[in-house]
Amino acid sequence: MIATTRLLGPSDRFGRPLRNLRISVTDRCNLRCRYCMPEAEYQWLPRSSILSFEEIDRLAGIFSGLGVTKVRLTGGEPLLRHDLPTLVRLLSARDALSDLALTTNGVLLARQAEALRVAGLTRVTISLDTLRPERMREFARSSRHADVIAGIDAARAAGFPSVKLNTVVIRGFNDDEILELLDFAFGRDLEPRFIEYMDVGGATGWSMAQVVSQREIVETVARRYGAVKPVQQSQWAPAERFALPDGRTFGVIASTTAPFCRTCDRGRITADGTFLLCLYGEQGLDLRELVRGGATDAEIAERIAAVWQARDDRGAEARLGLAERGVLHRIESLRADPRREMHTRGG
Ligand code: SAM
After folding, report:
1. What pLDDT, in 10s, does the model give residues 171-222?
2. DSSP-assigned letter for residue 267
3. Confidence class of residue 4 from pLDDT cuts 50, 70 and 90?
4. Which of 177, 188, 101 lies closest to 139 in space, CA to CA?
5. Interstrand relation of 240-243 and 229-230 (parallel, antiparallel or unpaired)
6. How many Cα neighbours within 13 Å face the side chain of 78?
7. Residue 147, SS3?
8. Could you tell me which of 67, 84, 283, 329 has the fewest CB atoms within 10 Å of its CB?
9. What's the 36 CA to ligand 1 centre distance in angstroms?
10. What is the torsion angle, in degrees rounded to the nearest 10, for the CA atoms of residue 113, residue 203, residue 37 and residue 276?
């Protein structure tokens, strides 16, 4: 039984395999985006609780033995973690991991893109919500817009086969930039992806009125470019992809209005080593305790497989079903458990 589990990997109660792992390498961030970190002060995880590179690498090996083939490093801002290429080098030496990606705000990417590529990173996704520096100053409390653009260009120059641009679309902030951002991405050979504003973690100012739906985004693009068509792709991909009449493509991640829980094959590890089964999940498995407490790889794999097999989370669908949908967490709830923060659990 155990051998079968190892070979095929565990499936959860809805038959979803564990294939994707998002690892938050730090809860710190150098931006203060209003949809993620709007508060003046934060409760940071104690540094001693943050997983070391060796601990992350060991866990990645255990997860790959359970069927994980794709790992995404995130945060917080992962490039704030000192010497990230060293972690990338460790992970890329693992043959079972065919895809090793990074999600970053790009502020520190220009200096590191080449080293990350050489270390074995296969894909980069860069978050860019506006092309207007003054908007970024107001919205993310940062004047580093030019650095982000330089980071995007450095990623392209480093030769990553795929560089994606993530934009969270928020009504009244950047919904008037959808087409400009699309053109910017096409002009630099990046795949643009628009994300619906989600009521996750630190989004304490969230309201449905600010959500720009996938339908609206697609309609906006179609008005400019003509009818767009959905592109066939793997059922496990979070973004739905669409093609313009000329064949260029863009993606939309419709987690708020059209969630894709039934095809979610993603687990995530918080910066301090809690394994979560859902972005909205409350309870997790404390892997740090196991790793630091002397558990063997087989014992840890057994525990991971057991929680995955018991998984019945469909967090975003449950939120969609609510009659009155407000913010998920208020500030007191985030302070009571910082693992509820998006920047701790990793977006
Ligand atoms: N610092 C990195 C970055 O900015 O890409 C990685 C971490 S960030 C939490 C990962 C992604 O989550 C970003 O693309 C960000 O825009 C997205 N995100 C954060 N809060 C969100 C929210 N409330 N709704 C939708 N996307 C969100």
Report:
1. 999 999 999 999 999 999 999 999 999 998 889 999 999 999 999 999 999 9
2. E
3. very low
4. 177
5. antiparallel
6. 31
7. helix
8. 283
9. 7
10. -60
